[in-house]
Write a structure and sequence with these properties.
Elements (H helix, E strand, L loop, with lengths): L6 E4 L5 E6 L5 H11 L6 H6 L5 E8 L2 E11 L2 E9 L8 H15 L4 E7 L3 H9 L3 E12 L2 E11 L3
Parallel strand pairs: 5-6
Antiparallel strand pairs: 1-2, 2-3, 3-4, 4-5, 6-8, 7-8
The chain binds coenzyme A (COA).
């Protein structure tokens, strides 16, 4: 279900950021950002599998160029945040926080009652972002992620969505 209306806000550096739906034609850039964002990046096939009615794929653009994206699966009334990634050159000025807030607002508008996510226990940057956005830790999934030396645990975090 493409949602073409963008939404812009003036970034902290005075440049407008714009959100829109991600499309398959973005995948070359997405895969480039993905490879720089994760030790175990998603493949193109994994992204392609997410272009389904119950998924929301969001693009964050700066001056027309893709600088980040998010992938969210809607499962009954729960929004599962599967991927949130910002290009390394665009980190640290509020883009991640903005895209997170955007997808949370959209999930609320779409009738979801909570957002759930997993994050590597070693990913303190993302953990800080989620905590500062109001997410609380509700548990742990042991060995959830592949890691350089075996497996790594995931924190499970949720954000209840007020109506
Ligand atoms: C996690 C990620 C999305 C954050 O994006 P970002 O645009 O750099 O984040 P923001 O500038 O919006 O910062 C938001 C908050 O994140 C935290 N944060 C950002 N950079 C941080 C750092 N280097 N160290 C610790 N916390 C950090 C802070 O709480 C920050 O809030 P503050 O500026 O008020 O202190 C980005 O680092 C990224 O894409 N990482 C690789 C992919 C990834 O790990 N995704 C999450 C998977 S669960």
């Amino acid at each position: 279900m493409p949602i073409s209306n963008g939404h812009a806000f003036p970034g902290p550096d005075g440049i407008f950021l714009e959100t829109r739906s991600l499309s398959r034609s973005d995948l070359v850039q997405v895969l480039e950002i993905e490879r720089q964002g994760y030790s175990h990046p998603w493949s193109e096939g994994v992204f392609l599998d997410c272009f389904k009615d119950n998924y929301r794929l969001w693009a964050l653009c700066k001056e027309g160029g893709l600088i980040g994206y998010a992938v969210v699966a809607y499962l009954v009334d729960e929004a599962h945040l599967l991927n949130l990634c910002i290009h390394p050159d665009s980190r640290g000025f509020g883009a991640g926080r903005y895209l997170l807030q955007y997808l949370v607002d959209k999930a609320r508008e779409d009738g979801m009652v909570q957002v759930l996510l997993e994050v590597r226990v070693s990913n303190r940057t993302a953990e800080q972002l989620y905590k500062s956005a109001g997410f609380g830790e509700i548990g742990c999934r042991p060995g959830y992620y592949p890691a350089a030396n075996g497996r790594e645990d995931a924190r499970v975090m949720t954000l209840p969505l007020d109506k």
